[in-house]
Each structure stands twice: as C-alpha cells, then as structure tokens.
Amino acid sequence: MRKAGWQRDPEGMRKRIIEAATEEFARFGLSGARIDRIADAAGANKRMLYYHVGNKEKLYLEVLETEYDRIRAAERELRLEKLAPIDALVRLMEFTWHYYLQHPQFMALLNTENLHRARYIKRSRKVKQLHSPFVAMIADILRRGEADGTIRKGINAVQLYISMAALSYFYLSNNHTLSTIFRSDLLSGAAKAARLRHISDLLAAALRSGRAPALDTHAVNVLEIN
C-alpha cells in the first residue's frame, strides 16, 4: 500500500515526508530525529523514503531549504513595494514577529542549525539564492526612503534585517528565562501586543530622518518586576 502511495502521488508523498520531517527535526534536533518515526508519520516505507529523499542529513537540509523558501515566499506576498518606505519596513518586522509566533518549528530549526555552526546551510546554494533578492528588496526600500526624505541615510540593508529579526527572535526564543527573571508571562496576549508596539516604535524611530518620536512606554510597564 505504501509503495502504491508513491506511485499514485509521488509529490504528495514527498510533501508529507517533508512535513513529518520538519516536525521531527524541530522537536528532536538532527541527532535525535529518527527516520523510522518520520516514515511512520508520513505513511511511507522507510526503505523507499531513503530511496526517494535520501539519508537523514539530506532530508534535514531539504527541510531547512523548504522552511527558508516558505518564509521568503510569504514575505513576497506582503507587496512592500506598494507601501511608503517606513510603513513597508515596519510591516516587514510585524510580519516577522507573527511568523515566528505562528511557526515555532522555524525557530527550532534555526536553533539546531546554529548548534551545528551552519554546517548544512553552508552546503545549500538555494538558501543563498533566496536571500539575495530579499536583501535587494530591503535596500530598495531604504533608497526610496532616502530619496523622499523619510529615512535617514547610511542604513545597511543586511544590518537592518538582522536587527529587525533579532527584536522578535530574542524575545521569543528566550521567553522562558525572561519570563522567570521579570516575573511576567511574556507570551500573554497583553505582553505580546505591548512587545509588538514597542519594537514597531523602536524601528520607526531608528529609521526616521529628523527628530525621533518618543517610544511607547506601555511595553515597559508590562514587564515591571513584582
């Protein structure tokens, strides 16, 4: 029956394997993941999985590439070129925040790959190709903002995106320790809303030419130590 599944719908079976592998690698990491569990979750034959997808390392890399492809594709759907420059960049950061919240497996895979010092991403030409147009898009938004006088000059596109991602990533990846230290549930609805307002204000202030507006103080109040 599993062999027939490959024959009837090979692309569908591959998709199920990738989804099962994503869950497995996100939960157990590369070393703890098991091919037999992935095969069972996907309804695949373990031997055929090896034949059609490859060994565990090849499958792990395909999962990484798929996850990067998904987030870059979702970012393209934002149509940021239609927005005013600062609005576009704030929208991108808001999207990043929500994407990390809605796709914890992506953050888990990033953590795993960093533990391996990007050993597998280094092998991927696809991931590098995905990021080149993305950085170019941010650079174009910055140029538009400089041209219309809304964004200050000299902001580096790569540095900016790293900072934007970090504002969401650090908060979410360290929420357990930070919640304990500050005696506050950082994943409560109020705390998440306050954090998003805070980082949006922070980004807009950092980008804007001229005098920066005051930051939102509500986010600080939420994290007061009891």
Question: Can you walk through the features of this model?
Answer:
With 226 residues, this protein is mostly helical. It has two domains: 54 residues, Homeodomain-like (Arc Repressor Mutant, subunit A), CATH 1.10.10; 160 residues, Tetracycline Repressor, domain 2 (Orthogonal Bundle). 75% of the residues lie in helices and 0% in strands. The chain has twelve helices and no strands. α2 packs antiparallel against α3 and α5 runs parallel beside α8. It is globular and about 65 Å long. It starts with a helix and ends with a helix.
What is the CATH domain class of the largest domain?
A: Mainly Alpha
| Contiguous runs where pLDDT drops below 50 for at least 5 residues | 211-226
Looking at CATH, which topology of the largest domain would you report? Tetracycline Repressor, domain 2
Helix content percent band: over 70%
The average pLDDT value, as a whole number, equals: 89
The main pleated sheet reads as: none
Separation of the first and last Cα atoms: 60 Å
As for the number of domains, it is 2
Examine the secondary-structure arrangement and name the CATH architecture of the largest domain: Orthogonal Bundle
> What fraction of the residues are assigned to beta strands by DSSP?
under 5%
Q: How large is the count of helical segments?
A: 12
Describe the global form: globular
Based on secondary structure, the structural category is mainly alpha
Number of strands: 0
Order of helices and strands: HHHHHHHHHHHH
**How large is the radius of gyration?**
21 Å
The CATH homologous superfamily of the largest domain is termed: Tetracycline Repressor, domain 2
